[in-house]
Amino acid sequence: MYSQFIKELIDLPDVLIQKVRKEEEHWIFELSLPEQCPLCPVCLKRTIKMTCKKKQWMHGYAQRIGIFWIELPVERRRCGTCGMTFSTSYPAISPRSVATDAFQQWVAQSCIGTSIQAVARMLKLPYTTVERWFYIHAPSFLSNDIQPKAVCVDEFAFRKGHDYGVAVMDAETGEVYAIETGKNEEAIGRALAHVSRSVQFVVSDLTPAMKKSIQGVCPEATHVVDYFHVIQLFTDALERCRKYVDKWGYKRENVRYVCRLLSQCPEKLMEEERQIVREWCKESDDLKSVYRSFQHFRYVSKSKDEQQAKRRLEAWMHRYSFCPCSVVRAIAKSLVKRTDEIISCMLSPYSNGKMEGTNNKIKLIKRRGYGYRNIQRFALRVRLETATIL
């Protein structure tokens, strides 16, 4: 029974276990193959053994004994017909590697859900070795059958003002499918090409490059503008008005208090706070226009069906397209060109909320050393951390 357990632990085809020995802190299993005569890979004739050396590979890990090794003879043979010389090799064992393929795959799978550094410390292996094995074998753990129904597309910055990337994520499961360098139309198209076959809804921001890329790569998909980015137009305008009026100081507590009162829904404010907002609006006509248009758009976004949303949105645009405030006119002008996407935004259950969280996660992982040059490895790491591995 003991020998049978060892045989299952080794799990190599056609090997014979000779003995087990311990050298310093390592357990080594001496293995051998039945007598055989490898044929020449060139002329397929019989060969002659020249030399024989034994080589060791890391093959497994046990809780109490740590990493255990296997030892197999590696013969140098020569063909008597063509004079070709070669070294023998074994299936699933690379002659130039320090570990077997089975051990490398186990190490790569152990890195999922934890950091590479933690696995390297547990196994007492160099970090660069574990990292190399992870990026070699980790793609085999992911499913190649990518068929998402709805995806989120958004850009993020590796270094603001310098290096940017585009990420594509499943809107339902949160799995990251692709990350590409750049934020132009070509980069967005490359990222969407991974999911263009099955996607039905694409959620993005209001940039023209997003719209053109979605129409070019996914012409049959419904483009949904993210509600967060639409609301951000109004909140940014309120912030500019606040800075322009400059009546509430620069202390962080005061600024946060003012921003909360201006961006919060009036129904969630107390009567005293609503009165303060009314007084602020009386002091600045621009602030009053932006605040009113913001609350009116919130009313539009609560539409129950497509007809109601279209009717309310047209009324909103008719009212604010010729507003005296230039900021409100600019917002109305940008929304007029995206009427269909704005209506889809109000009625669609999808948003870029998960993507915004992924951006924060991307920044966190980047601080661990995954920079611009390692973007493909970085994309794989993010996808593995967000995917469900079966």
UniProtKB/TrEMBL annotation:
Signal peptide: none
Domain of life: Bacteria
InterPro entries: Transpos_ISL3, Transposase_DDE, Transposase_HTH
Domain Transposase IS204/IS1001/IS1096/IS1165 DDE, first and last residues per copy: 151-382
Pfam family, one: HTH_Tnp_ISL3
Chain ranges of the Transposase IS204/IS1001/IS1096/IS1165 helix-turn-helix domain: 89-134
Protein name: Transposase
Organism this protein belongs to: Anoxybacillus thermarum
